[in-house]
Amino acid sequence: MTAEERRLKENREHTAYWRRWGPYLSERQWGTVREDYSPDGSAWDYFPHDGARSRAYRWGEDGIAGISDNHQRLCLAIALWNERDPILKERLFGLTGPQGNHGEDVKEYYC
Prior knowledge:
- This protein has a domain at 20-94.
- The relative contact order is 0.17.
- It is α+β, with helices and mostly antiparallel strands.
- Strands 1-2-3 form a three-stranded antiparallel β-sheet, with no helix packed on it.
- It is built from two helices and five strands.
């Protein structure tokens, strides 16, 4: 049995919890279809980037280079500040599907 097969077996049998922590935090949860509660089904228009910092998500969480436990009860990610903007950069800014060249597109610029 290889080391990886042993880890998978331990996880399956609950003798070790190899998948408890991992990169389960998406870099972009806002504006996704999973978070769409609009009356007309327009996910991109219903939830803009500005609303992301003051919203509790129902189906996930987001963050830059984040990790979380497998249930997203504890989420850890970095936040950046360029000392000019009024808010911390806690999530990537991007274009929606209709705005981007090939669907949604991250357009964050760090300086």
